[in-house]
Amino acid sequence: MAAARAAAVLALAALLAGCASSGANLQRGVSDEAAVRAEMGAPAETVALASGGRALFYPRGFRDTIRVELGPDGKVRAVEHVLDERYFDRIVKGKTTREEVRAMLGPPFHVWRLGSGEILWEYRYVWAHDEPWTLLVGIGEDGIVTGQARHQERDAGPGFRR
Question: Of 30, 44, 63, 129, which one's alpha carbon is 20 to 30 angstroms from that of 155?
Fold first, then answer.
């Protein structure tokens, strides 16, 4: 019985280790979607890109999302952690569309629907000395970004972990 339990624990540990992959073993221009899925598992979301490729999103916990971009040829173009200020800065009020935000950042942590018809997408991330932050992206009924707000979470508590 102890041997069976130990084997089950080792199998679960191996499974979780595979699920937590950062994509570091993927080779740009060489690895294909099958290699991505073998290393990282099934994506939480797949988005078609205007360039003809696809983006596969792998949320890791609540505050990290890995985006794997596949080109039109099906090969890996990029592997990036996207819940970061440099990606948020690409979101332009009155110009960026809902689809562009989704293709850039992937699935939000939470979706808020306001009485005005506007939708807020919430993304949680880590910034500034490993502190918990939240990005809110407003999207109007026309599908265009109405604005964004970033704020430090003061209530994440002393046990905050990525």
Answer: 44
**What is the per-residue pLDDT across 88-139, written as a single tens digit (0 to 9) for each?**
999 999 999 999 999 999 999 999 999 989 999 999 999 877 899 999 999 9
**3-class DSSP state of 136:** strand
The vertex-136 CA angle with 50 and 69, nearest 5°, equals 30
Q: Which residues of 96-126 are buried (b: 16+ CB within 10 A; e: fewer)?
A: bebebbbbbbbebbeeeeeeeeebbbebbbb
Give the H/E segment covering residue 56: strand 54-59
From residue 79, give the alpha-carbon distance in Å to each of 25, 38, 65, 105, 134.
Answer: 10, 15, 10, 13, 22
* pLDDT tens digits, 31-72: 999 999 999 999 999 999 998 999 999 999 879 999 999 999
CA distance 55 to 46: 6
Neighbours of 6 (CB within 10 A): 10
pTM: 0.80
Encoding tokens for residue 158? 């002393």
